[in-house]
Write a structure and sequence with these properties.
132 residues, mainly alpha, 55% helix, single chain
């Protein structure tokens, strides 16, 4: 049992230094601030680069807008031209315009209905002497 008592025996607390041995003194204030100039230069540099980037982006968008306007006007002109050409084709394809053009070329209207010749061996009738 003496071993048990030794295991559970109180241990002496470590010694604290006496107030006289530990001398506390005030630490002088030091300028622990970082210099502001590099930070200000960095912020101004970032803002300047951002501003230049926005100006370049705005210029590119404006140039694209002008190109788009030019392409739209070209598209309108080509659409008008296509409509005009389609109208001209329709006018020249009309029966009275075709008859007038045929008269200028020296063609005359047929007096009789057309006749079709059926030759032996043609696709419409069987050939002479054929099986069928």
């Amino acid at each position: 049992m003496s071993a048990e008592r030794a295991a559970y025996a109180p241990v002496a607390a470590p010694r604290r230094p006496s107030p006289r041995s530990a001398s506390l003194r005030a630490v002088p204030l030091r300028g622990s601030r970082a210099p502001r100039a590099p930070f200000v230069v960095l912020v101004l540099l970032v803002l300047g680069i951002g501003l230049i980037g926005l100006l370049i982006l705005n210029t590119a968008l404006q140039q694209g807008s002008f190109e788009l306007g030019e392409l739209q006007s070209t598209t309108d002109e080509l659409r008008d031209r296509q409509t005009d050409l389609a109208d001209r084709v329709a006018a020249r394809s009309a029966p009275d315009a075709l008859a007038e053009e045929a008269g200028r070329l020296g063609m005359v209207p047929a007096e009789e209905a057309p006749r079709f010749l059926e030759l032996p061996g043609s696709a419409g009738t069987p050939a002479a002497g054929g099986d069928g």
